[in-house]
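Handout, page 2. Input:
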Amino acid sequence: MSAPPIVRAADSERDQRRAAASLAAAGLRPGERVLVSAAASPALLAVVLGALRTGIVPVVLDPALPSAERAALAADADPALDAGDDPARLLGEAEAELAPVPLARPMHYTSGTTGRRKGVWSGVLAEDDAAALAREEIDLWAFGPRDRHLVLSPLHHSAPLRFAVHTLLAGGEVVLPGPFDVGRAARTISTLRPTTTFCVPTHLQRLLAHGDVDWSSFRRLVHAGAPCPEPLKRAVLAALPEGSVWEFYGSTEAQFTVCSPDDWRAHPGSVGRARPGRRLEADERGQLWCAVPRWARFEYWRAPEKTAAAWRGDLVTVGDLGRVDDDGTVWLDGRREDLVISGGVNVYPAEVEAVLDAHSGVVESAVFGVPDADWGQRVVGAFVGDADPVELAGWARERLAPAKRPKTLHAVAELPRTSTGKVRRLDLPGVLGLPDG
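Output:
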């Protein structure tokens, strides 16, 4: 089996200049968009960075999108150029000058767990804001020339692309092993000795279950994208070098918190504290709002009403529910659309899932609501694992108030997920043949 490509900063820099020259020759100007929908490759990274460092905004789409959905998003993005699935065709012989840092952020479309996908648009940044944006990310994770970053998630998602881009900007290397395969990922980790990676809890679950992974090269393994069950988190902390396992809470739109290993051990289940330059608070409905710096502002592409609903001055929300302790520790309770209201009591799925996940026979769980004539909604749980549903119900009964106890528990082989690893709770009633709502 051939070794995966390793993208070196100096080689990528040359290809970025070539991509920038091709975009300029095609007539693209700062603020215009180039559409790319290709699998991870050195050329994809070069086109993305070559565009960003000349103020052109790459719109990065999933190459596996059905043609009708791709066409709809392409029409919405209104690109000046559609590079299709072959970014290498933009790497000509001519080279153009590049700004030291990206002058824009890529435009990603939100994953669409509910409703129509929304483009997240930041426009072209002023030079000082662009420098601050790049410096914030590089400093937060201490990316540098000695880093070798392993890409485990698709680059059309914002976090994997952000980590890869800033590793290259800091002079490091990026390893592209292709679509996630647990055996290939385990071999890559053990043989190519990456120092950093971004992943989701599903990756960690599968790698730990696979075994035969030499984790000793990591100085930063950062996870996000979905809640990490406490038993899994403790197993990862035990398997990796001390101080290397970090977490953050963020979204396609904005980044909110960072959680060090020490912070998590002091507050298991939390997502840490606000990133530098940010402040979080919860409103009267329990919805989280974050004050962000000027360079982190965004709008929803051609959706002014959605943009207006997301912002209050410098405070932004993506609809997540949670709370902030007096010491700044942030706890997530889920999405507002996931909230279950049973007999007038707000039930946050994350709280119930934490109890179920603590059972030795549960690998992971998801909690949701279905219509109930007496209670409005009743709480239902699905879980992966070998626990006996009756015994698991007793476990939950001992640890949860009556309104929060799942009325039924269903063992499943796996939970439905988005491509970023988020559990699609709202799909579970259909999967289990239960009434929706």
